[in-house]
Structure formats: structure tokens, C-alpha cells
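Email to the structure team, subject: 4Fe-4S binding protein model.

Hi all, the expression group asked for a predicted structure before they design truncation constructs. Nothing fancy, just the C-alpha cells so they can compare against earlier work. One-line instruction: predict 4Fe-4S binding protein, return C-alpha cells.
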Amino acid sequence: MTFSPAAPPLPATPATEKLTLAAVAGGLLALLLALADADASRQRLWFWAALALIGSGTLAWSWLKFGTHPAGVQHDNLWRRASTSRGAVAWATGLALTGFYVVLYWFSADDGHGHFGLLDHLVHPLDGFSQALRGRPADQWFLYGTFYTLAVLLMGARALWKYRHSRYHLIRTASVMFFQLGFAFLLPGLLQFFQQPEYYFSYFWPLKYDYLFPGTVTSLLKNGGLGVFMVFWGAVMSFLATPVLTYFFGKRWYCSWVCGCGGLAETAGDPYRHLSDKSRAAWRWEVRLIYPILAIIVAITALLWVHFATGSTLLGEAGGAAAKWYGFAIGAVFSGVVGVGFYPILGSRVWCRFGCPMAAYLGLLQKHFSRFRISTNGGQCISCGNCSNVCEMGIDVKQYAQRGEPIIRAACVGCGMCSTACPRGVLNLENGPREGRYQASPLIHADSLRILD
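Reply from the structure team: attached below.
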């Protein structure tokens, strides 16, 4: 009978880190107090105190945890902590996130008198900020946008400290922070302030599926010059710029540099990237889900345009019902409740991997038409598994690295974390010529191949 040696105890958390985490916990408690307090002035006090405590606590903890230590991926003890190994803390976090999304989508609608259901006491403290930015009171979506942007910025700062040794990750993280703050939060608000349509220039069809629906296009065209430009921008970005940029840079130009969904996954979701399922069964489910979802939204868009061209007589109410069904099942349940709520259980790219139609579109372009690949040198691989562990898209990178095979997968978002985690410099992100794109590295040694066999 053999006994495995006992695992060493987890290192103690320094008192200074505990103090900053206590500040974050105090901020979460203040949010609960804002929810429970019926007095409007105290609601504002609790709400803004909560944001101050959560923001300052997160920044201070990130600096102490990563800014004062050597930079790097730092896998240590991830599978031993309850917060990052599907333990009790992870499940509690997942339930809290899922509960927030359920309340946001189905229990916070405006009743017509400025009341927003269960989130009412969190929405109104933002009225002043919303009036200054958008020229109108806050609603549940402005609250969500504020929380979302704050999460990307705060956890983005954490990523900047953690990966400060890599110029690629510094620029990439700064990019998603910029696009979320500027293009997905401030600019749409300013457009509303000037009585223009709310428009997100960093989201395109088929991800922002309704931007090419006949009703949206018609409404924008009626708005005049800016509306015409918005329609032009959406069409060009979806059908011209996306193929061209993906040809040269792979899907990373969008999924890891621009997209708000990817931005949240790369910042707030970074502690959970190792949880993605690397099994072949998960890959089969990925194929079974993401491409049919892309086909569904393409079909709905085409049918709506045919319906529009025939004078709205072809489909009756069926076209609108299909669009609403898609918005509920995919736009709300999948991308929100599951896509973010399940971060601590299934990893940070559940939506991007299994449901996002934009990721499917970009993935097909990347796999079959792009110059992008991750080259490998199997002769240098020591099979440590660091690369596979950090892949949030469920790719078993180690299997490619051992054989010196280039990684050309539709799922890969080009985050570059596998290359950063590799201690031997085996993996390199390249935008090379298409000739020889699928060939294994000539540097792999015959001995390595025999060992793998």
C-alpha cells in the first residue's frame, strides 16, 4: 500500500493583503446596505462608499499581490484554493454573478414610473452621473454598464501589474480597457446626450445581431448623416474590415484586443482561465453549439430582410418572434447568465467558446484564410503543461507543442498566454506566409518523435 506525500500547507496571506480584501468585502456589504435602505440619501452614500471601497481595495490588493512580486503567469496553488478550484468560494461567487444577471434581465424592468424592480436602489444613485454623461436618468442598463466597465478597468490594472514583463500583454490589456471605457461606455452615452442613437462602434454583426436587422437599419437611416454613417460602419466592419483584419492578424485583433466580452474575460476572468475543459468531448460540444448559433442568426437576418423586401407580408409575426427568441436564449441566457455567471466554475470564455456567433465567424476565417498561427518547436518542449493550463479556449496546447505542430484552431483567440507561460520559448505567435502554414517545425528532433510514439 502506498501513500502520496501530504501537500504542503497553503502559504499564509500577508496581513496587508487581508486588509485590502477586507475593504473589498466591506464594499460588497455596503452594496447590500444600499439595496436594503429605503432612504434615498443613504442609498447614494452606501452606493458610492461601496464603489470607493471595492475600487481602492482591488487596486491595493492587486499591487500587493502582483506589483511587489516578480511578474509572470504564476500558476502556484490555483488548484488548491477554494476560489479558483471550483470550491465553496467559487460556487458562491458563481451563484452571486448568476443571480445578478437573472435579476438584471428579468426583475429590473422599468415599470414606467422610474422604478427598476430589485435593482431600484442601485440604479438611482447613478442618476447624477447619468444626467451628466447621457442627459437622462440612469436605468438598469446604465448600472450594468458602469459595473461592467469598472470590472474591466480594475481587473485590467491587476493584469497590467501581473504581466508587466510582457509588452504584448501590456498593450493588449490597455487596448481592451480603452475600447470598453471609450467605445462601449462613454461614447454611447455621449451620443444619447446629443440626442443621437445609442450605438456601440466596437460591436458588429453577428455579435450585435440587430445592427443589421431591417428595423434598426431603417431607423438609423432616418436619423440623417450620423445614422447613415453608423449603418455604413457596421456593414463595412462586418463584411470588409473583419475578413481583412482576420487575414492578417487572426481573430485576436477583435477577440483579445477590442471586444468587450473578451475584455471582461481577459481581465476579470483571468483568475479562472485554467478551468476551461480541455477534453475532446468539450470540443465536440463547442462545434455542435457555436456554428449552429452562427447559422441561426444568419438565417434570421436573411429572413427578416426578405420579409422587409416583400412588404412585411412573408413571415407575419414569425420573424420578430424568432429575433426575440434569439435575443432571449442567446443574447441574455447564454452570453450573460451562463457566459459570465459561470466564470468561477467553467472558465472565463464559456460564451466566446461555445456561443458567440462573432467568434464562430472569425474562427472560420482564421482557420481557413488567415496568416495567423502559433508556431511550435517540439524539440525544446519539456511537457510541463503550463501552456495547456492557461488556455482559456480549451485547447490542449501541449499536444501540439510536443509534436512541433503549428496551432491553427478556429477557437484560438491569440491571447498569447500559452507563449508567455512557456519556460522554454517553444511557442510563438506569428503572422507568417500561408505557405507551409500547416507543417510541423523542421527543428523537431527525431528522438522526440520516437518518445511521443
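The domain at 371-452 is CATH 3.30.70.20 (Alpha-Beta Plaits). The radius of gyration is 23 Å. Ping us if the truncation boundaries need rechecking.
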